[in-house]
Amino acid sequence: MKKKLLSQLLFGLVLASALSDANACLTTPAPSNILTSLYGWRFHPVYHRWRLHKGDDFRASIGTTVVASHSGTVQTGYSASGGNELRIIGDDGMVTRYLHLSRASVSPGTHVSAGDAVALSGNTGEASAAAHLHFEAYPNGSSVTNPEPLFCNAPTRKSGADTVNGFPILACDPDNGQCDTSGGPPATSSSGSSSGSTGNSGSTSGSTTAAVTDVPPAPTISSFDDMSTNEIFVTEVTKRFSNPDWYQQESTMSTVPLIIEYAHMKALQQYIQFHKSLAHERVETLLAAKLAKKVKRDITPRLERQRMVASKAGSGDSN
Fold first, then answer.
1. Distances from the Cα of 309 to the Cαs of 193, 298, 303, 304, 319, in angstroms?
2. Residue 159 buriedness (CB in 10 A; 0-12 / 13-18 / 19+)
3. b/e 78-113 (16+ beta carbons within 10 angstroms → b)
4. pTM for the structure as a whole
C-alpha cells in the first residue's frame, strides 16, 4: 500500500513538474508570429547611435489585437520613446512590456491569463519608425532578457530581422570596445550621445551629435510593403500627432530639420499618390474587363437572332 502511494506521489510530482515547464513558456503576443527586429545592440534607425534594443519587434499593423503572453496583473503607462505601454506583472514574477500601442483594451489592475486580448498595436512613441509591437521580458522582474527563446511557439524571423539598415545587431555594446564593428557604423561616445530627445533646450551648438539627433527620421519605405495606402497614412500621422513630445520637438527644431521634415512629408505624399494611381489603374482594368464581359454577354443573343433572321430570309428567297 505504501509503495502504491509513493508511486502515485512520484507520478504527481513528475506531472506537476511537466505542467510547470509547459506553463513557463510565453504565448506569442502578436498574431503574425513574425519577428521584424531582434533583441541586441543595434545602430538605432531613429536615434542614429548604438543602443540596446531590449526586446523583439513583431509585425503588427495599427489596430492588431495584442494578447497577454502569460498570466498576471495589468499596468499601463506612457513614455516619450515607447509611446502607449502595457505591462503584465506575472504571478510567477515574470514581467512583460508591450510598447508603441494604439491603446490598452483592459483596465489597470485587471488580472489576465495567457492569450487574453489586452491591447491594440500601433505606432506611438518617437522611437517607433513604423507600426509594430515591441515586446520585452523580465523573468525576475528586473533584468531584461532576450524573449525569443521563451516563446512556446518559436516565432519566424523576417529576412533581415538580424540587421538594421544593413548593419548587424550585436550581442554586446560596441561603445565599450567589446564588439567588432568593422563594416558597420563607428562606435559612438556614450558620454556624447543623447537620450533621443530632439531639442530639449532648442540649442543648436553645432556639435555632430546634436546635428544628427536634430534631424527627424525619414519614413521607412521598406516597412510599407505589407500596408495599404490608408495604413501608411495613419501610421505616419499617428506617429506625429498622437505623440505629445512631437509638438515640442517641432517648436525647437532649427530651419534645416524643419525643411527635411517637410521634404519627408512631400516624398511620402508622392509615394502614397503613386500607389493610389496604381490602385486606380487596377480598378479601371477590372471595370473594363467587367464591361467587356457584359457587352459579350449582351451581344451574343443579338447576333444569334440576326443569324436566325438571315437564315429565314435566305430560306424564303430560295422558295
1. 89, 18, 10, 9, 16
2. exposed
3. eebbbbbbbbbebeeebbbbbbbbbebbbeeebebe
4. 0.54
255-318 vs 229-241: helix crossing angle, rounded to 10? 160
Please report the pLDDT score of residue 66 as a whole number.
Answer: 97
Domain count, the chain: 1
Indicate which CATH number applies to the domain containing 55: 2.70.70.10
Is 90 contained in some domain? Answer: yes
pLDDT digits (tens, 9 = 90+) for 179-207: 655 544 444 443 333 333 333 333 333 33
* Residue 296 is assigned to a structural domain of this protein: no
Residue 30: other Cβ atoms inside 10 A: 23
Determine the Cα–Cα distance for residues 100 and 69; give it in Å rounded to an integer: 17
Pairing of strands 167-168, 133-138: unpaired
Domain that holds residue 67: 26-173
Counting as low any pLDDT under 50, the low residues of the chain are: 5, 9, 11-22, 183-213
Eight-class DSSP state of 118: E
φ, ψ for residue 122, nearest 5 deg: -160, -150
- Parallel, antiparallel, or unpaired for β 34-37 and 156-157? parallel
Crossing angle of the two packed helices 244-252 and 229-241, in degrees rounded to 10 = 70
Domain membership flag for residue 3:
no
Q: Look at the chain and count its residues.
A: 319
160 backbone dihedrals φ, ψ, rounded to 5°: 90, 5
Residue 193 is placed in which grid cell?
Answer: 550621445
3-state class (DSSP) for residue 34: strand
- Is the residue at 77 inside a domain? yes
Output the pLDDT for position 116: 97
pLDDT of amino acid 245: 62
> Looking at residue 226, what is its pLDDT?
56
